[in-house]
Amino acid sequence: MSFTPAGAAAVGLALALAACRAPGPPAGRGADAASAPPRVLIESPSGRVSAVAVELARGEAQLARGLMFRERLGPDEGMLFVFPDTAVHAFWMKNTLIPLDMIFIDEGKTVVGIVERAEPHSTAPRTPGRPSRYVLEVNGGWSAAHGVAAGDRVTFEGDAARD
């Protein structure tokens, strides 16, 4: 998974600006929360909660590489892209070997759109066209199998909670 050239340039600029912030966990969060395994919980209006164990993509290199070259992803595993700023993010599937669902999440931790079953190796930009701050990538078909939809609420646990 990688960004389109325009998206990569925007991320580069945003990352340069974000580098001026002091590192460390946000105020009010203890060391235990930051050391727990990162997970994303998605809650539907019916109360159903789906959990995904995630790898985090935060730095420029991680954001650009994503899940490229991976041959498999566990059934409830994924990657959470944490962008420094809210924007309309677009992804492509060049060098990505497995179909993926991309769940776009806004600053308020609400699902704003889903790209389902993105085709491997495609350079077509994938986006719901709505601003997001986070993107959760999971196996293709995971969103439909778990009933995930726009409007669902999201909670981050462990290191994923540190933006």
How would you describe what is shown here?
With 163 residues, the chain is an alpha+beta fold. The chain has a single domain (2-19, 38-161), classed as Protein of unknown function DUF192 (Jelly Rolls), CATH 2.60.120. It is 18% helix and 34% strand. It has helices at 5-18, 31-35, 60-65, 142-145, and strands spanning 2-3, 39-43, 49-57, 77-87, 91-92, 100-105, 111-118, 132-139, 153-157. The strands form 2 sheets. A 7-stranded mixed beta sheet has the order 7-6-8-4-3-2-9. β3, α3 (60-65) and β4 (77-87) form a beta-alpha-beta unit. The chain is globular. Mean pLDDT is 83; it is low at 4-31. This is DUF192 domain-containing protein. It holds the Pfam family DUF192. It comes from Anaeromyxobacter diazotrophicus.
Low-confidence spans: pLDDT under 50, at least 5 residues?
4-31
Percentage of β-strand residues = 25-35%
The tally of beta strands, per DSSP, is 9
In CATH, what is the homologous superfamily? Protein of unknown function DUF192
| Overall outline | globular
**What is the H-and-E element order?**
EHHEEHEEEEEHE
Structural class: alpha+beta
CATH topology: Jelly Rolls
| Biggest β-sheet description | 7 strands, mixed
Query: What is the helix content?
Result: 10-25%
Output the strand order for the largest sheet: 7-6-8-4-3-2-9
CATH class: Mainly Beta
What distance lies between the first and last C-alpha atoms, to the nearest angstrom?
21 Å
CATH architecture: Sandwich
